[in-house]
């Protein structure tokens, strides 16, 4: 009934309310304002998201690694004569390669965390093996060249490791540096070593705190936006139910009660005939209301379905390309179109939130396959492990797979970490079904 037309895209997962484009449509194809304002999934653009924070962190560590690495080259060259002729250059070159890896990872998002971890570990190796690297004591007016990169290593650890591992790393680096500086191979710096260690600990700790706070804030923003979308969807369903109740109450009041009163007062043949006619009309009204179910929504052409999906994804925070394919003249039931459009939009929302930023290529293909329709929502982003999704996360299972299965369709998620994601939606009429 009305509920079916008012909230076809309602769902329980983030982005489920994004089907409000269909929710605002009437059976005549016109659009009406949503009863509770704009859909948060389409109009709210969070300024801080987990993807944007991770992107900013990747750029920050790349700039720091390349910048500090370049300024440390003269110190490394000055100290090479005092270092082991094999291990000294090998450590310096290995760390330089990790810095270049971090810089390159800015353009390949899925490699960013790996590059940060490699950089942090190689710096730690360079630091703790310094006593083995030094062949002759360096001049007293110089400091071991790893000192200039302590903050880079700690920053890479803060961004690449889990918070507790990064905390251990941030405490370990200054401690190791102070111990090395107090030895003859480190310059026997005395109080200066303690001051340098405290400086490094404060700066590295500040970076770690900022990274943790921003990540948690971004996670909270993503969760708040998902909650807003779920509440909007719930409100749409509640509103549709209330509208339906009002319509039924109107039928009961205007037709059924009036008929009963007329029948009770019928004391002539003409009055009885009129009461019988009114009773017939009341029954017709009730049957029409009961028959106004989801299955009676007008069929939708594939062109209209593609247009609906394109309009919906056009408001997302990252571009999604809707490919033009030749579409046949078949039409799918309205409920099928609503389910497929809502599932496709949910898949696109998931891609925008989790696959990466605007550099990720995202596409949607709508095409006819035999008597049915096939929709592919894909990206070349981060991908994920389907088996690793917690049971309480309903975005893929409820808002995509079950939504399409509920209209006798099929949904498949093809993905792997680092290999992108493709969501395949298929529907075809069963043999003998009316078209």
TrEMBL record:
Q: Which domain of life is it from?
A: Bacteria
Q: Does the keyword Oxidoreductase feature in the UniProt annotation?
A: no
Q: Cite the GO molecular-function annotations of the record.
A: kinase activity
Q: Which residues cross the membrane?
A: 56-77, 89-107, 114-133, 145-162, 169-187, 193-214
Q: Carries keyword Transmembrane?
A: yes
InterPro entries in the record: HATPase_C_sf
Q: Which UniProt keywords apply?
A: Kinase, Membrane, Transferase, Transmembrane, Transmembrane helix
Q: Where is this region: Disordered?
A: 1-39
Listed Low complexity bias regions:
1-11, 19-31
In Swiss-Prot or TrEMBL terms, this protein is called Signal transduction histidine kinase
Q: Which organism is it from?
A: Curtobacterium pusillum
